[in-house]
Write a structure and sequence with these properties.
disordered N terminus; 8 helices; 31% helix; 10 strands; 308 residues; four-stranded mixed beta sheet; 9% strand; two-stranded parallel ribbon
């Protein structure tokens, strides 16, 4: 399902050259987009892709492909999706180490405004800063950023198991599909080679899309961990299912609403100034997306891609 989506995404992006097999996606596209392959530029590469995936198009170069963004409510294969509620503290869905989910606002330090400036947040101690910087670092490992690991682009050292991080969210295949499609659209919006986009789909699908997937190593220093984030009963069961390793034998429970007042609802998203404003919906089906009904996808050449 996800691989098909990403193959379709690849058809709307064009790469300026084929990436050599012995060069990682991170190294290749850092050079293509930012000229010099340095640790600082590798971090900037990941910042551009992650921030665009989260809030939608905000910068150039890009090839004119619309990216609604993870925080924009929409639909995936005809099913309504609202991922914002997992970020704004509306749900008891964050794993803080206890036996049940907690309400955590991950938009507590400027919302979209600092992301539009290629930053994670306004400060460096907020939930928002920690979330975004961890995403940059995690994606850097998966991209094969060979210069990651020093002070300019620190290594990933946060949660080992993506299952543990996300288990109280009880994400279904539509939510996971919408999330992953935004990452793919972000890559395609900067220009992407078909082969690299296919690699994105394969990597994301294998890691996140199958319920009760067995432990897999993503961060070498962390060893094999449970990585699936699709835990709702509608998620496809892994052919090598190890549900006994998960809470409640792999049976996810939908998160309850937080008792505190939320500043958002299902029809809001983060605006360019960081405030919460009504947003048009996005529709995603098999990897294509539109905002407010329909947006033409423009074909153009560019120099950038992502492999999660």
């Amino acid at each position: 399902m996800l691989l098909k989506s990403f193959v379709l995404l690849a058809a709307i992006g064009q790469a300026v050259a084929q990436r050599p097999a012995n060069v990682s996606v991170c190294d290749y596209y850092t050079t293509a987009l930012l000229k010099n392959n340095t640790a600082e530029n590798q971090l900037e590469l990941l910042t551009l892709v992650v921030n665009t995936a989260v809030i939608g198009n905000y910068t150039k170069p890009n090839v004119g492909i619309a990216v609604p963004g993870i925080l924009t409510p929409g639909t995936y294969n005809g099913t309504a999706v609202n991922l914002l509620q997992y970020f704004d503290g509306m749900l008891l869905s964050t794993n803080e180490g206890g036996s049940s989910g907690q309400s955590v606002n991950f938009l507590d330090d400027g919302g979209a405004a600092p992301l539009k400036l290629n930053m994670a947040a306004n400060g460096t101690t907020s939930n928002q800063y920690k979330l975004l910087t961890h995403l940059y670092q995690y994606f850097g490992v998966l991209l094969g950023c060979t210069l990651q690991g020093g002070s300019a682009f620190p290594p990933y050292a946060a949660g080992k198991s993506m299952y543990q991080v996300h288990k109280f969210m009880a994400l279904d295949p539509f939510e996971v599909g919408y999330f992953i499609t935004q990452v793919g659209l972000s890559a395609a919006s900067f220009g992407v080679a078909t082969e690299d986009v296919t690699t994105v789909g394969e990597a994301l699908g294998k890691l996140f899309d199958y319920r009760c997937s067995p432990p897999t190593t993503v961060i070498p220093s962390q060893g094999p961990q449970l990585q699936s984030i699709c835990t709702d009963k509608q998620c496809p069961l892994s052919p090598n299912a190890t549900c006994s390793l998960e809470s409640n034998n792999g049976v996810a429970v939908a998160p309850a609403n937080a008792t505190t007042n939320s500043t958002t609802n299902a029809t809001t998203s983060v605006s360019s100034t960081g405030s919460l404003t009504p947003a048009p919906s996005a529709t995603t089906s098999d990897g294509t997306a539109t905002r407010a009904g329909s947006i033409a996808v423009l074909l153009a050449a560019a120099m950038f891609a992502l492999n999660l």
